[in-house]
Specification:
2 helices, 33% strand, OB fold (Dihydrolipoamide Acetyltransferase, E2P), alpha+beta
């Protein structure tokens, strides 16, 4: 009986570990398309927010603090690219390395993205 109890506890611990790993695992979504919204949320969520090709509102970066590896200076460059893309109807491409799946449209609203790449093309 003691062996069964110990085995059950071990299996439960292993299951909990796997469950925790699944919850923290992230995919990279590549978001490509026209921006339908570009904004800055100044009330605590200071940063660049975009909507691209049917996605939800995504926080790409922060203007005041480093967000993952994107510095505030990098964020200003990304914001310039986003504004230019929005004004000229250019297409953007950016990577979200902490997305719940590889689909940009599956990223939840107000997601704080780990964005390592942002570009525009015509």
């Amino acid at each position: 009986m003691r062996k069964l109890k110990r085995r059950g506890t071990t299996m439960l611990a292993a299951f909990a570990t796997l469950l925790g790993a699944a919850q923290t695992q992230a995919d990279t979504a590549v978001c490509v398309g026209m921006l339908t919204s570009v904004g800055n949320h100044a009330n605590g969520g200071n940063g660049l927010y975009v909507i691209v090709a049917g996605s939800n509102q995504i926080r790409v970066c922060s203007f005041t603090t480093t967000q993952f590896t994107v510095t505030p200076e990098d964020c200003k460059h990304m914001a310039s690219l986003a504004a230019l893309a929005f004004a000229t109807d250019a297409s953007v491409t950016f990577y979200v390395d902490n997305a719940p799946s590889t689909s940009c449209t599956a990223i939840p609203a107000w997601h704080v993205a780990n964005t390592r790449y942002f570009s525009l093309s015509k």
